[in-house]
Amino acid sequence: MSDDQNSRQGILSLTIKDKAVLYSAYMPFVKNGGLFVPTNKSYELGDEVFMLLTLMDEPEKIPIAGRVIWVTPRGAQGNRTAGIGVQFSEQDAAANAKVEEYLAGLLTSEKPTHTM
To answer: Which of 19, 47, 54, 97 is the most buried (most CB within 10 A)?
Structure first.
C-alpha cells in the first residue's frame, strides 16, 4: 500500500479566538481568501491540505480544503513564525465569507498584513 503524498500531513487544526490574530493571519490578497497557519511540519508549494478552523466562540469547526501557496521554514530570518500560507478552494467561499464577516471594518484599515 503506497502512502499518498498529499495526505501524509493529516488534518491541520487552527483555532483563532482573537480578531487581531485572525486579522494578522488572513490573506485578503489571495484569490478565494487564505490564512497563514503556524506549523513545524514540512510542506511543499502546491500541497493540498485539509484544515479544521475554529473561529472565536463558534461551536462548529469550519472544514477548509486548500493548497499551500507559501512556506516559511523553521529558522527563517527575522524570527518569523514557521508555517504555511493556505489558499482556500473555490468551494470554501462560505469559510472565507465567515472570516471576512469577523473582520468587517478591519480589512479597510491601513494596518499592513504579512510582508514577504
So the answer is: 47
Task: Encode pLDDT of 1-11 as tens digits.
Answer: 334 444 456 78
CA distance 33 to 31: 5
Distances (CA, A) of 59 to 15, 50, 92, 100: 11, 19, 18, 18
- Tens of pLDDT, residue by residue over 93-115, are 989 999 999 898 776 655 555 54
Which residue has 500531513 as its cell numbers? 9
How many CB atoms are closer than 10 A to CB 61? Answer: 14
